[in-house]
Amino acid sequence: MKHTLLLTLAVWITIQSGWAQNNATTIAYIAQYKAIAMKEMKRTGVPASITLAQAILESNSGESNLAKNHNNHFGIKCKSDWTGAKAYQDDDAKQECFRAYDNAEVSFKDHSNFLKNRPNYVDLFLLDPVDDTAWAYGLKKAGYATASDYPKKLLKIIDDYELAQYNFPELENEVEVEEVEEAPVKKMTADTVVKKVMIDTPMNKVITDTPTKSLNKPTGIAQINTTNNLAPLPTQTLPVQTLPAPQKDTLKKDTIKKEVITVVQTTKIEKVKIDTTKAATITQSVLPKQPIYNYPEGQFRINQVPVILGKEKMSFIEIALKYKVPLYKLFEYNDIKASNLLERDQLIFLAPKKKTGAASFHIVKYNSSLQEISQLEGVQLSLLKLYNPDLVEPLKEGTQVILFNKKK
Known about the structure:
With about 400 residues, the protein is of the alpha+beta class. The chain has three domains: about 10-175, Lysozyme (Orthogonal Bundle), CATH 1.10.530.10; about 185-290, no CATH class; about 300-400, no CATH class. Helices cover about 30% and strands about 10% of the residues. It has ten helices and eleven strands. It has helices at about 1-45, 50-60, 65-70, 105-115, 130-140, 150-160, 315-320, 325-335, 370-375, 380-385, and strands at about 85-90, 95-100, 195-200, 255-265, 270-275, 280, 300, 305-310, 345-350, 360-365, 400. A three-stranded antiparallel β-sheet has the order 7-8-9. A two-stranded antiparallel sheet has the order 1-2. Strand 5 (about 270-275) and strand 6 form a beta hairpin. The longest helix has about 45 residues, at about 1-45. It is elongated. The N and C termini lie far apart (about 90 Å). The relative contact order is 0.09.
């Protein structure tokens, strides 16, 4: 009896020791890769908790042969479209082909892309991005794994190691700054609306002869509204800056280079008159291609509906997490297609828009669309189309858009 108890105790100690060792390995693994998982969540929308749980399960916390020798932390097989390095080992069948990577981070990125770009996983991205349970069962349904208890295994790992905490932006300071893959896009601000461009003008096209050292004020150039009004003002003028006169030795026989002020968003200048001696003037107005918004920072209201001004290149998943709005709802509220990043500065509603506007009509101030009017006025796009069945897009300046049901 005594020997039996000692044997049982020895087995129990061995099991506990092994569990403690495995637990420590997993904790270290999470610490090593949590920042990558959080960064991938912002980039693609795959929950960080799901990414970490899958990596822990598929790679045995980085201890599997595929992870150690080939940096494959998710057990992703080659598939027909894979053109990278390959590794072979027994799995469901003998000597199956698995993807191999240069480092673990590439494996994490490929895992996110694998889910994001394959049609059988598209329904996952309609789920709430912080709903671990829905994602776990959604992965099984989409065919990521064959084991019937795969969702339960993922959810147990998430619960045991409290991985759900990495789905929330308050831990954002733990995410390293993502490397710049493209040239940075300069943001539009009041200080950068005006820029200088060099224009070549044939000498035989010069029409003015005003010996002045500064640019005349351009007329009709759009300016950022400095008031708290919600509607953009596209017809006010911008301040100009004095430019030095060109040196005589820079003048050429056939052409002359002059510095001219224009607006960042504009695509063309219709006419330019250039002084043959020292100055240049803009004689035609330049219309903005899109409105220049002037709204407060953070959350505010349009037509009593909460809204923010989303900035170009901002992540939709980041907005959904910050304001606790399901990602698919964000697209639904704003009548836009699902995507990763905002293509331009735009209003993003955080709740359903109203059925009618705060005013009865909206007068179009520049060529626009009903979708844009829907955002500016906080009125549902589908209803605007019902209220204005005869309008043809694009809506021209001066068009009157009805914001209520005339029948009622």
